[in-house]
Structures are given as structure tokens and as C-alpha cells.
Amino acid sequence: MIASGRLYKREKLCSVTAIDTLFDRTGGSVAFTSYPLRVVWRNNGNRKSGMQFMISVPKKRLRHAVDRVAVRRRVREAYRLGRGVLGDVVDMSLDIAFVYLADKVLPSPVIHAAMRKALEKVRVANTPTE
User: N or C: which end of the chain has fewer CB within 10 A?
Assistant: First the structure.
């Protein structure tokens, strides 16, 4: 399990191919909304690197770069602090994307609550039922 102290480079979803597959409608991805976040995830059994994530803040929603950077930092911090909810799911090969939906910069507690709710939903969906 990854320590919750920091985010490592290996946790970032950087591969163009993996991102295209994640957002491809036929790629087996699952999407849901936990306002102000849209979460898109898929189980990627091809690699053993564990869970990787990406954050997207559309320019269409927040026109100022300063606002986009602030939101990206808040979402990243919410993920860093909330990923403990995932438990053993972190060791699985998951690709996950968080897309910010709000038209304004929301306070951190709202983003943290949405992230916690989203990660809980991902955990429940990936928990093996035996």
C-alpha cells in the first residue's frame, strides 16, 4: 500500500495511449459524477504498477490559469488525503481520471467531500465479492 504522505511520479497517469483508452467509449471505462468531480475509471490488468490518476480542469469552465491551477492543487490534495479509503484497491491496476465540472473555484471542504464519496464508490465497485 502506498503511504499517504506524498504522491509519486509512478502514480500519475501520463501515457497518451492509456488516457485515450480511459476516455474511449468502448474501452470498458466506468464514469460517474460526484459533483464537482466527474470520475472516469477502468481496471487495467495489463500492468502491475498499481493505481494511476490524472486531473483535468477544462479551460472552458475556468478561463483563468490561476483558477485552474488552484483547483488542480485542491483536487490533488483531496486525492492524496483521501486515497486511504481505497484500502487494498490501491494495489490493483486502475486508471482513474478526475474532471472538474464546476464553473467557479469551490472551497476545499466541498472538493474533499466529493473526492471521499468518489473514492468510496470506486472501492466498492472494485472490492472482490467472495
Answer: C
**What's the chain's length in residues?**
130
* Angle ∠(2,20,66) on CA atoms, nearest 5: 70
Residues 71/62, Cβ–Cβ less than 8 Å: yes
Q: Cell 486511504 appears where?
A: 84
pTM for the full predicted model:
0.91
**Tens-digit pLDDT profile for residues 56-111:** 999 999 999 999 999 999 999 999 999 888 877 767 789 999 999 999 999 999 99
Rounded to whole angstroms, how far apart are CA atoms 29 and 31? 7
Q: What residue has cell string 465540472?
A: 101
Nearest to 78 by CA among 35, 108, 104, 52: 108
